[in-house]
Amino acid sequence: MRSSNPVFKDLTANGGAPQQYGNPYGNPYGAGAGFGQQNPYQQSPFGAGVGQQPGFPGAVAPAERAMTVDDVISKTGITLGVIIAVAIVNFFIGTVAPGLAMGLALIGAIGGLITVLVSTFGKKYGSAAVTLTYAVFEGLLVGGISYMFASMTVSSVSAGVLIGQAVLGTLGVFAGMLYVYKTGAVKVTPKFTRLLMGGFIGVLVLMLGNFVGSFFGFNVLRDGGPLSIVFSLVCIGLAAMSFLQDFDNADKLVRAGAPAKMAWGVALGLAVTLVWLYTEILRLLSYFNNR
């Protein structure tokens, strides 16, 4: 099943099914000798023999440890920690130099997009460096956007309350969709993926059209009016559904025994969805607090 998340698209193979990381030449020693297992008759009872010790010519490299759920949790936590730390820094930069903060946010948006493209098309989805670079860029973006919407709020709601509401909303949606996935209330099927992809394409086309129209005074999807509220709700719904796709891809990679480094790719995919969801919830809250 092919993922609609651009990061997860290349984490799977064979039309979307998770790649099996077992012995590519078959298993002559029984069904149990899969990824990371060796022929028991090649092992010396006295340890590694000549030609098996590290540094000897022809030495056999040890199999990489398989990815676990704990790997996904830890790598995602590190990635989000970097995003939050950088976002806080750029937010406070905005309080003393708003122009600089907005410039850094723009750099973050462009850099984050380039990083995702490198991860997707450059086959770097298992790279810790790529994932953490994305986290730094997105931290700049999140901090700048948070400051921008907080400064635009004209009601009695403080910036801290507005941002706190957006964070709680994001965490709530994440937890809710994780529960939905675990209970199997919504199944991730090929039809589900096609519908989700269609929704993403539609939203992207509308965003691009609205962006071009904004240069001519047409900004109906982001002006805070009723249509803007509906559009933000649609984006939030798509981001929420995207979590199901993310969870499903991560689950398949764990079951397939993918290398542990793939957890960085999973973390990147989840971070993309979380950042999008947070910005849309923050935007929606700003509409109501500007009334």
Automatic annotation (TrEMBL):
Ranges annotated as spanning the membrane: 72-93, 99-121, 128-150, 162-181, 193-218, 224-244, 264-285
Entry annotated with the keyword Membrane: yes
One Pfam family, short name: BaxI_1
Key words, A-Z: Membrane, Transmembrane, Transmembrane helix
Source organism, top-level taxon: Bacteria
PANTHER family registered for this protein in UniProt: CONSERVED TRANSMEMBRANE PROTEIN-RELATED
Protein name listed in UniProt: Bax inhibitor 1 like protein
